[in-house]
């Protein structure tokens, strides 16, 4: 498109005023494109010609934020085809055409209709063309140009955060970096100083400083102590125009916190701590708490306590409570007021995390003295031993002393001690103890085979304060005495073959003895003396606590004798020697050549099957009982199915009639008169029965009045006789036997009340020594209630 553009250029006029302004000056240039002019000749002498170009500007500049009243002039479009006769019409298209930018169709002048903001849009691309007003034919091709918005300083710097949060260690050196702040300016950074920001500090001196170009905040004062001041508020300003006058500015607040470092040692608040603790304090209990103060916080205030000196080594220990940083003093060994009444400890506290940078500030530890005073407590008696073991032979006589226990009061007053046995550990009252000297003796005969050990508990009680008690276990071993005879190890039953030969072993027997000799058992077997002369069998002692039963002849006949009973004497080798005679049952059976049993008599077969006579009797009794139960059950079922006794109304024989009707309860006062039962002297003149039809022709029976007694009540026997006489003489009574129940209680008994509610309440009020004078039948009661005081109290 051949278009001559008339452009007015605006230039900067001056910058001297405080709020400097921009003035744009545009000048118009142009020429006829395509015109020629002579420039000389070429080598051939041909004259050279230069074509004149028409200047075309592809950019317009427009000042933002225009505040004038007239439309802001942008520039002018002109075409070579425009002769000024109004035949050319200029058309503008593109961004903002018709809205932001308006063109004069005749003159080609372009104006801005609104205030423009470069920060919203920095440039606009438009297209212009010239057309014939009458034919709309394009006189020039479409041309593109740009309108750029010229920046002015209309935006102040803005920080990216507000407020800033920062931390810096206390006691930091000068120049320690804290945080960097950043401010941005929306103005054009490529044009002038409108977007050039300079930082300065408004509040926070002399503690901090800021780099004017980078915005880096640093410490400006050494030795800032968190324990003195922890938080600081710093105000930073960002100003454009390189900080010159007339520039716009923005501010932000930086909250700076001094973080803790371990620059303070722990210190005890006192040099001497004193605690009191009872001597009865249990091991592991806390005796007291101590605390050292540290101005630091967090891990910098963590401390460790330890004992560096003590006049009671190992008595106490100290630990650190990590949540409170307290020193916890703990008891490790038992206290005894009578042995030591005061302890002194030297305790040291030290920081766990020490910063080597602050070693010069002194040792990060402290020391203190702890005084612990032991308080006296009334303690229970203390036994000389933790447990006692006593031995007694099982044949020891009653009241034999088997040992003694000893306890004493550990307190200074040294109270007397009274001994007793905890009867919950000696329910059978086998043992007793002397209340004064602690001697243990037996009350009943012992049997080691029944109980080889007895475990009892002895109680020691202070005489002046019975609530102070202590216990000690006493283990009593019953020593063995050879008081049991040996017997067969089991119930032996064997057989002998009819074709047996002499001296053939048919059974090996062994023995058992509940006694336990120190050297082990040694049993001796022999045939009983009364059977030695006519014996059919012999006994051979194997010398190993077993014996063999041998035949003494070559053959036996089951028809002549089917069962033999061999008496075997077993004795032990202890003192005093004990022996017993045991019977071995031998049955005669038919055997094969190898000695295997083939046939025995019925009794022998039964025995070999493992069923003794007692077992057969038990089985028979069970069968009989089952049969009786079945028969009884069948009889009960038949009885339920029987017809009632009264078959018809004509049956006038005596019958038992069952009445299944229910009475009216307590409110039914017509069935009977309860007053008669309550008052035997009450006389009912004309009471009619309810169980039969009243007969008016029978005169009422006069009942004699009983003589009054001392308490206006008759004796039970007289009462029953009177009622019996009334029923016997009553003509209206039923013609069959009936049961009359009289719910009447007598006036009392000469034996008085048998209730235990009015008896004495304490066992100590009774003297049961008279029970021993009542004879052997009351000996058990005399042993239970007639013992000495220590036995009963325990």
Automatic annotation (TrEMBL):
Signal peptide boundaries: 1-21
Residue span(s) of domain Cadherin: 79-159, 160-268, 269-383, 384-488, 488-599
Transmembrane segments: 615-636
UniProt function note: Cadherins are calcium-dependent cell adhesion proteins.
Keyword Calcium on entry: yes
Molecular function GO terms recorded: beta-catenin binding; cadherin binding; calcium ion binding
Keywords: Calcium, Cell adhesion, Membrane, Repeat, Signal, Transmembrane, Transmembrane helix
Stored Pfam families: CADH_Y-type_LIR, Cadherin
A Gene Ontology biological process term: cell morphogenesis
PROSITE patterns: CADHERIN_1, CADHERIN_2
Protein name per the record: Cadherin 6
């Amino acid at each position: 498109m051949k278009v001559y553009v008339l452009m007015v250029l605006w230039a900067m006029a001056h910058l001297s005023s405080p709020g400097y302004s921009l003035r744009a000056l545009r000048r118009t240039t142009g020429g006829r494109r395509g015109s020629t002019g002579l420039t000389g000749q070429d080598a051939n002498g041909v004259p050279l010609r230069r074509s004149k170009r028409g200047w075309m500007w592809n950019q317009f500049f427009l000042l933002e934020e225009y505040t004038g009243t007239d439309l802001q002039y942008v520039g002018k479009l002109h075409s070579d085809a425009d002769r000024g006769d109004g035949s050319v019409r200029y058309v503008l298209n593109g961004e903002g055409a018709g809205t932001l930018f308006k063109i004069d169709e005749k003159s080609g002048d372009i104006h801005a209709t609104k205030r423009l903001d470069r920060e919203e849009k920095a440039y606009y691309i438009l297209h212009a063309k010239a057309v014939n007003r009458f034919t709309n034919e394009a006189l020039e091709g479409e041309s593109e140009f740009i309108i750029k918005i010229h920046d002015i300083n209309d935006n102040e710097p803005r920080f990216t955060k507000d407020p800033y949060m920062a931390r810096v260690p206390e006691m930091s050196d000068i120049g320690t970096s804290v945080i960097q702040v950043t401010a941005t300016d929306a103005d054009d950074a490529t044009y002038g100083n409108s977007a050039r920001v300079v930082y300065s500090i408004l509040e926070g001196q002399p503690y901090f400083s800021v780099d004017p170009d980078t915005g880096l905040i640093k410490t400006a004062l050494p030795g800032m102590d968190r324990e003195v001041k922890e938080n600081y508020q710093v105000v930073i300003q960002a100003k454009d125009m390189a900080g010159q006058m007339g520039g716009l500015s923005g501010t932000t607040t930086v909250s700076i916190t001094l973080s803790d470092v371990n620059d303070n040692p722990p210190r005890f608040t006192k040099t001497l701590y004193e605690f009191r603790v009872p001597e009865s304090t249990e091991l592991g209990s806390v005796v007291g708490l101590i605390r050292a103060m540290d101005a630091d916080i967090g891990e910098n205030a963590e401390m460790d306590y330890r004992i560096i000196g003590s006049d009671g080594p190992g008595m106490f220990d100290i630990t650190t409570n990590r949540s409170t940083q307290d020193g916890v003093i703990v008891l490790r060994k038992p206290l005894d007021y009578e042995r030591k009444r005061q302890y002194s400890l030297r305790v040291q506290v030290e920081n766990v995390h020490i910063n080597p940078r602050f070693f010069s500030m002194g040792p990060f530890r402290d020391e203190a003295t702890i005084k612990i005073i032991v308080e006296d407590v009334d303690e229970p008696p203390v036994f000389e031993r933790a447990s006692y073991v006593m031995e007694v032979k099982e044949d020891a006589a009653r009241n034999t002393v088997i040992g003694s226990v000893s306890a004493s009061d550990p307190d200074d007053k040294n109270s007397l001690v009274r001994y007793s046995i905890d009867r919950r550990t000696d329910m059978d009252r086998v043992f007793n103890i002397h209340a004064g000297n602690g001697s243990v003796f037996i009350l009943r005969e012992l049997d080691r085979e029944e109980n080889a050990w007895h475990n009892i508990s002895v109680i020691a009680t202070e005489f002046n304060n019975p609530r102070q008690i202590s216990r000690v276990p006493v283990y009593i071993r019953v020593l063995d005495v050879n008081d049991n005879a040996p017997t067969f190890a089991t119930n032996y039953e064997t057989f002998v073959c009819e074709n047996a030969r002499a001296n053939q072993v048919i059974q090996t027997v062994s023995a058992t003895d509940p006694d336990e000799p120190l050297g082990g058992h040694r049993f001796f077997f022999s045939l009983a003396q009364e059977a030695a002369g006519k014996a059919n069998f012999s006994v051979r002692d194997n010398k190993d606590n077993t014996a063999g039963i041998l035949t003494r002849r070559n053959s036996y006949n089951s028809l002549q004798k089917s069962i033999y009973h061999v008496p075997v004497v077993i004795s032990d080798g202890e003192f005093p020697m004990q022996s017993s005679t045991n019977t071995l049952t031998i049955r005669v059976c038919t055997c094969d050549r190898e000695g295997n049993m083939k046939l025995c008599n019925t009794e022998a077969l039964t025995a070999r099957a493992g069923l003794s006579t007692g077992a057969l009797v038990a089985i028979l009794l069970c069968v009989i009982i089952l049969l009786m139960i079945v028969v009884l059950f069948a009889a009960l079922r038949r009885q339920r199915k029987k017809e009632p006794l009264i078959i018809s109304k004509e049956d006038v024989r005596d019958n038992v009639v069952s009445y299944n009707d229910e009475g009216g309860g307590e409110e039914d006062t017509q069935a009977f008169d309860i007053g008669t039962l309550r008052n035997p002297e009450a006389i009912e003149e004309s009471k009619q029965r309810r169980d039969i039809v009243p007969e008016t022709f029978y005169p009422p029976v006069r009942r004699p009045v009983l003589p009054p007694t001392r308490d206006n009540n008759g004796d039970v026997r007289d009462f029953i006789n009177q009622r019996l006489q009334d029923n016997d003489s009553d003509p209206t009574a039923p013609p069959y036997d009936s049961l009359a129940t009289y719910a009447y209680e007598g006036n009392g008994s000469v034996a008085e009340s048998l209730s235990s509610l009015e008896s004495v309440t304490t066992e100590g009020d009774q003297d049961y020594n008279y029970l021993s004078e009542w004879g052997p039948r009351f000996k058990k009661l005399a042993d239970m209630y007639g013992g000495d005081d220590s036995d009963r109290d325990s």
